[in-house]
Design brief:
Number of strands: 9
Largest sheet: 4 strands, antiparallel
Distance between the termini: 28 Å
Helix content: 25-40%
Radius of gyration: 22 Å
Low-confidence stretches: none
Shape: elongated
Strand order of the largest sheet: 1-7-3-4
Length: 171
């Protein structure tokens, strides 16, 4: 499973020597990093892992510059985002028309697609296929620094709770 920080990151945060092996602690820290990574993704209600995503969005008749907020962030430029409009009743995807890339703008970091045209009354929905997320290198996802710090902080808090419960139970 991919993680947002390494054992060395957590040890550095805890002012421990990141190069020294701490018997018993390294295994616990590794398990707690996975737990913290899952907690962060659950709290943020998104995945930070790079992958291809498909979203179906209801499009009310709107004016020009309608904004669509994608669930995932760090939208990749390549492969390009694909936007299709359905002209059928309740998304049937029978009459799908791809939208040329010059008719929408993408803010990759914020995950916002701005339509550069007014949607017609006949438009019911949009299907957006895109690649988003951060690359994984050696099992660590290259997330932004604040997310990496949050993972180290959450892992240290989880470790503190684990050690406190071990002390109380006498382990």
């Amino acid at each position: 499973m991919a993680k947002f920080c390494s054992i060395a990151d957590v040890k550095t945060y805890l002012n421990m020597d990141p190069t020294r092996a701490y018997t018993g602690y390294d295994t616990r820290i590794a398990a707690l990093i996975e737990l913290s990574t899952n907690e962060i993704q659950t709290f943020c209600n998104r995945s930070f892992l790079r992958g291809e995503y498909v979203e179906y969005i209801s499009l009310p008749e709107s004016r020009r510059n309608h904004k669509i907020w994608l669930k995932e962030r760090a939208v990749q430029a390549s492969p390009a985002l694909s936007l299709k409009i359905d002209y059928g009743p309740s998304p049937s995807w029978n009459i799908v028309s791809p939208v040329p890339p010059d008719l929408y703008r993408v803010d990759a970091e914020k995950g916002v697609v701005t339509l550069m045209f007014a949607t017609a009354h006949a438009v019911d929905a949009a299907q957006i296929t895109y690649t988003a997320g951060y690359p994984e290198i050696a099992g660590i996802v290259e997330v932004p620094a604040p997310v990496k710090l949050a993972c180290a902080l959450q892992t240290s808090a989880n470790l503190e709770r684990l050690l406190a419960s071990d002390f109380v139970t006498g382990k």
